[in-house]
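The step that takes the researchers longest sounds almost clerical: writing a folded protein down as plain text. Below is the pair of lines this work produces for a single protein:

——
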Amino acid sequence: MILKAIIDDQSYEIGVPDSLLSRAREFYDQLDQDMDCGWQMSREWVEKPDRLQRCQIVADKLLTALESENEKLAMMMSGYLLTRLPGVDAVELDTHGEIQNNRFHLAEREDVERQSSSAAMSNAGLSKLEAMEQAGNDVTKVFKVGRGYRYSTFDHAENLWRDSPLASTEQEASRLRQAAFKDRYEELLRGAGH
């Protein structure tokens, strides 16, 4: 498998053998256990990093590996991203030390497969449980950025994550996130946007 790492205007293609993905499973599990205890993301301490935040943390390690020309570590970190974010084909790495600004792009191939597999359901939409699960995957939890709070939503049309506007309080960001989650949930029930 190949992951493209984009740093400013340069891009690197990192080949990750399938055999490495299976051999490194324990290493990746240990990495997850380390992050279970919380992690310093730029200036903020995150008590329980969610899946997107964990991938942003590992993407920061990938940037360090590329900058120090540590090919083995770059391959290991790329493997983590490929296993934890199915369909990811590229990562845009933030070079200003803002871990939460690392962005992921999902393969259009995956999106096409998802659209064709859900085409049969698109008239009726998803079941309530399926819609709730999908909406949960498409709208992240609220996270702290500097002195504010935001969440991200996955834009299926553009195949990338979009950040919400910055809210001054966690409660305000949670209220906005809840509204975005509800909108996405209702779209999925109607059969739109998946």
Residues 170-190 form the longest helix (21 residues).
